[in-house]
Design goal:
The chain has about 525 residues and is mainly alpha-helical. The chain has helices at about 25-30, 50-65, 65-70, 70-80, 80-110, 115-125, 125-155, 170-190, 195-225, 240-255, 270-300, 305-310, 310-320, 325-355, 375-390, 395-425, 435-455, 460-470, 470-480, 485-505; strands at about 365-370, 505. Helix 6 (about 115-125) packs antiparallel against helix 7, helix 8 (about 170-190) crosses helix 14 and helix 16 packs across helix 18 (about 460-470). The two termini are about 15 Å apart. Bound molecules: arginine (ARG).
Length: about 525
């Protein structure tokens, strides 16, 4: 009964990012009958295979992508000074760790794959859970793909037109490249899960090499005494709380993905130990890398140069690596491409699951008859991502503002769910209990992150809020009351058949009735 919107089990994990890919990921979904939280046994193919190392690499693999290469200039611009920049980068790491520890409590207490949806459902019921899946399908996932691909575009174009990335007339080229990347990723993900996951392993290696190169560069330069950028660290620090909020948005973008392990709790061998442990090892590791990479940028470039470079790692490489400078743009472009691939993969699955729940047209829950990939769902996400590239005003920075606002509304809600469940259901088993001050801190941080940017960009935040709330009438009309005239459904059915033949897709067998 889709009308009750029972939580689905598998909401878009990115497990194959860790190189632990199972080719049956799509299959898992296909065999997963409409599964409420208690129906784990119907879950064919999901095995407890992930250990501690997989857990850590899953976290690290999802988190590192475009942000560390593309966000630094915006963190610097908004915070105004080197000192605050480094503080923001470090605090983002702390917030990610705290947030992830809260998620650990929820994940071990309600040990189902599915992340936020399941927890929100448990604490606040179907409407809030629906609003979450609505927002992630329409806003969060497509904007992730679009943002990462814009960073990809910037890094591809920088070596060709050095120092021109900011020129307005090149913006359409960056967007065109981003659109092309979305197209390729969509194609690969529709063509074969195996390809998509093999591609991922190569890209993961590339990004690690890029990060390690930058860190070593930074350490060597520090040793050589290039520390001028750090003199007078707090000069020109902004006094606007709104701007600090935007600095956090951009920093937190680079850390996004900290919650990813919660999507696969059912697949962890020993979740009670490994979930918190992977977080406590993985996220500090990423935080240290990010801070060191930022220090590396600062040992080679001045803060002003960082603020003016649309591909800071390329600018650094041009300055320092001589004939080898070409490796950086290639590795970074691969890293972003891999991140976009991961996001697109999981969002295809998310749309698929939402459609299967009856939260989106059933057509989107169909599978390609030969390729066994969720073709309509993949296309759906990519089309929205393409549309997001269209407006003149859309750019890496503006899309991050939309994304972060919506994301932190729901991260905040999820932590509120934790607090609410502690109060409402104190006796529920909690194998991992996060110390109470942590969820309170994260909740307050989420409120700050939602409210502060309202001052400086009220319109963007307002639109985003409107988008989230627009889910309510949809929920009432289509899911709760189902007060849509029969003729409408007939029309949908007709279109479903048409599209089905055009795209060669069908309902997975278990649901074909
Ligand atoms: N932190 C990643 C980056 O810097 C973005 C991750 C997007 N979120 C996700 N769950 N895939 O590009």
């Amino acid at each position: 009964n889709a009308g009750e919107g029972k939580p689905a089990n598998h909401w878009g994990s990115e497990e194959y990012l860790s190189g632990e890919a199972k080719d049956n990921t799509a299959e898992n979904l296909l065999h997963n009958e409409e599964g409420g939280p208690a129906q784990q046994k119907s879950y064919v193919g999901l095995q407890r295979k992930l250990g501690l190392v997989s857990g850590i690499s899953l976290i690290v693999g999802t988190m590192i992508g475009s942000g560390i290469f593309a966000s630094p200039r915006y963190v610097m611009e908004n915070s105004g000074s080197v000192g605050l920049t480094l503080i923001v980068w470090s605090l983002c790491g702390v917030l990610a760790i705290f947030g992830a520890l809260c998620y650990s409590e929820l994940g071990t207490m309600i040990p189902l794959s599915g992340g936020e949806y399941v927890y929100l459902y448990e604490a606040f019921g179907p409407l809030v859970a629906f609003l979450y899946s609505w927002t992630s399908v329409i806003v969060l996932k497509p904007s992730q793909v679009a943002i990462i691909c814009l960073a990809f575009g910037a890094y591809v174009i920088e070596p060709i037109f050095p120092g021109c990335g900011d020129r307005g007339d090149l913006q359409p080229v960056v967007k065109l490249l981003a659109a092309l990347a979305i197209g390729i990723i969509t194609f690969v993900n529709i063509a074969s899960v195996k390809w998509a996951s093999r591609m991922q392993v190569v890209f993961t290696v590339c990004k690690m090499v890029a990060i390690v190169m930058l860190i070593i560069t930074g350490l060597v330069r520090l040793g050589q005494g290039f520390t001028a950028s750090f003199d007078n660290s707090f000069h020109k620090t902004t006094s606007s709380l709104g701007l600090v909020g935007f600095a956090f948005y951009n920093g937190l973008w680079a850390y996004d993905g900290w919650n990813n392990l919660n999507y696969v709790t059912e697949e962890l061998k020993n979740p009670y130990r490994d979930l918190p442990l992977s977080i406590l090892i993985g996220i500090p590791l990423v935080t240290v890398c990010y801070v060191l990479v930022n220090i590396a940028y600062l040992t080679v470039l001045t803060p002003v140069e960082i603020m003016n470079s649309s591909a800071v790692a390329v600018t650094l490489a041009d300055r320092l690596y001589g004939v080898m400078a070409w490796v950086i743009p290639i590795f970074v472009a691969s890293s972003t491409f891999g991140a976009a691939n991961g996001s697109a993969f999981s969002s295809g699955r998310l749309v698929f699951a939402a459609a299967r729940e009856g939260h989106l047209p059933k057509f989107l829950a169909m599978i390609h008859t030969k390729r066994h990939t969720p073709l309509p769902a993949m296309l759906f996400t990519s089309i929205i991502a393409w549309i997001m590239l269209l407006p003149d005003s859309s750019s890496f920075e503006t899309l991050i503002n939309y994304f972060s606002f919506a994301a932190w509304v729901f991260y905040g809600c999820t932590v509120a769910a934790l607090l609410w469940l502690r109060y409402k259901k104190p006796d529920m088993k909690r194998p991992y209990r996060v110390p109470l001050p942590i969820p309170i801190l994260v909740f307050l941080a989420a409120i700050y992150l939602i409210v502060a940017p309202f001052y400086d960009a009220p319109l963007e935040s307002f639109f985003c809020l409107l988008f989230i709330l627009a889910g309510i009438p949809f929920y009432l009309v289509f899911v709760y009351f189902k007060i849509v005239p029969q003729s409408f459904f007939k029309c949908i059915t007709r279109w479903t058949y048409k599209l089905q033949t055009i795209c060669d897709v069908a309902f997975p067998e278990s649901e074909a009735d």
